[in-house]
Amino acid sequence: MTTQPTPTTTTGDRITVLIPTDFYVPAFLGGGPIQTLKALIEESPPQYDTWVVCANHDLGESAPLVEQPNEWLPVDRANVRYVQGGLRSLLGAFRAAADVDVIYLNSLFSPRYSLLPLILRSLGRWRGADVLIAPRGELYPGALAQKPRKKRVFLRVFRALGLHIRTMWHASTEDEARQIRSLFGEQTRVLVRENETSLPRKARTRAPRSAGPLRAVFASRLHPKKGLHILLAALAEVTEPVQLQVVGAFADGEYEEHCRSLARDLPAHVSVDFTGAAARDVVLERMHDADLMTFPTTGENFGHVIAEALSESCPVMCSDHTPWSAALSSGGGGVVSPNTPEAWAAAIDEFSAAGADAWEAAAVRAGESYCTWRNEPKGRHIFELVRAKESKSSV
Q1: What is the topology classification, in CATH, of domain 15-196+378-388?
Q2: Residue 281, exposed/middle/buried by CB under 10 A (0-12, 13-18, 19+)?
Q3: CB atoms within 10 A of CB 71
Q4: CB burial string 168-179: b at 16+ within 10 A, e below
Q5: What is the pTM of this model?
Q6: 214-374, what's its fold?
Q7: Containing H/E element for 160?
Q8: Can you give the residue ranges of every domain in the chain?
Q9: C-alpha–C-alpha distance, residues 313 and 289, integer Å
Q10: What is the pLDDT of residues 59-109, one digit of tens each?
């Protein structure tokens, strides 16, 4: 009989981190937060041992990810327990995680993988562990406007139970830190550290662009906050030919019908291909083949998909609701403001009319912008900041 490993508290210089999260690789339908978490683990200092507890299925799917659920399995630098079998199995996973040093929550609005661990800790489980919550942009106004009643109730319960006390927060930007403090008070402890990425140090170059219509791509989870409906409404007004490839799974049937209805009414010189969800390597390849990545998001705390596009030397046209505005304006692509169909139609027409030579030059600038960003010093890893109880934005 094989003895399964069990996470234990600090031994010598080893530090144990428990990460409950709804989805983890090989899941990919949950989008950027999965890749961000994977990079967070891969880029952590060598003395940190990471234990992940997640569901044994992908977002909106029922097929199991692994054939050995409810056991600790090595996945790259982490040990992962893919939970299957309901609440009892989940509680069993948390019982199997002995005393740990850090609990890192990859979301705020997850009843099973954020709220439940916080309640267990308030009842005495993992006493003494540092708790860090990464809301991943969930507290931006655009995100809170989606299903607002449910989120207001969640936040009311969260505060009433005092779960925000004795916790720290991981913000990827100073702006996100302000959003967190506006909800939970100015004395809230917030550590500001840009999200990790495992993308390459150098952007991938591309072959010369031949003539033809503009090839655009939209790659994200197809949710109202990501703004696909804004893009489709804009394409109804463009005068230049555009071929758009939409990569991702719809969040719900109502939004899917709305977007497909907009696509059906587009003029003949605009084509839209809904390709569905795709694995990360496929998404990267489609970005590499595109002249432009379009992203009218209503708010991102980081925007991993933007970094991915730039790593493929794909210029990004984006709303001004991300941390990437400066990098895009200085060469990585462009920023559209206000985030309206009219403004997007004008920006796309201008880019499309410039032609193949201009698109090729834009791709070179996008790759250069990516290399500059990717190789900038990022500072200490967030796990180290938690243990040191320090950050440039700590109160």
Answers
A1: Rossmann fold (3.40.50)
A2: exposed
A3: 15
A4: bbbbbbeebbeb
A5: 0.85
A6: Rossmann fold (3.40.50)
A7: helix 148-160
A8: 15-196+378-388, 214-374
A9: 10
A10: 989 999 999 999 999 999 999 999 999 999 999 999 999 789 999 999 999
